[in-house]
Design a protein that fits this description.
It is built from 5 helices and 9 strands. The chain is of the alpha+beta class. The chain has one domain: RNA polymerase II/Efflux pump adaptor protein, barrel-sandwich hybrid domain (OB fold (Dihydrolipoamide Acetyltransferase, E2P)), CATH 2.40.50.
């Protein structure tokens, strides 16, 4: 799997991508593959303030239930209702239409500290 170079990644298998003043956050293709068929997603309310690495939601598959972690601190500006209504979208488009939340970062420098695509790919390989 080639991970898009236009975003950053976490060891918890979330991706983050700059979009204007916001950071768009989703789960990686590696995560959705490991989870299997996603059947439920719980996302935070718009306006919720998150700390870096704080749990912001849950993704449930036929195999497991996993927490979602915020890669950086900030305020939720949008939650993807499409993915809440069609959780399997995560399996079909993890790096595309299945983004989870948008966050207005309180410390934009946290974004730069995340792994780039090459580092994340190396991290995923190290798990095998």
């Amino acid at each position: 799997m080639a991970y898009p170079a236009d975003r950053k990644y976490t060891k918890e298998h979330e991706w983050a991508m700059k979009q204007g003043k916001d950071i768009v956050i989703g789960v990686t293709d590696h995560a959705q593959s490991a989870l299997g068929d996603v059947v439920y997603i719980e996302l935070p309310s718009v306006g919720r303030v998150l700390k870096s690495h704080e749990t912001f939601g849950v993704v449930e598959s036929i195999k497991a239930v996993s927490d979602l972690f915020s890669p950086l601190a900030g305020k939720v500006t949008a939650a993807n209702d499409t993915v809440k209504n069609d959780p399997a979208l995560v399996n079909r488009a993890a790096h595309g239409d299945a983004w989870l939340i948008k966050l207005e970062p309180s410390n934009p420098a946290e974004y730069d500290a995340l792994m780039d695509a090459k580092a994340y790919e190396g991290f995923v390989q190290s798990l095998k």
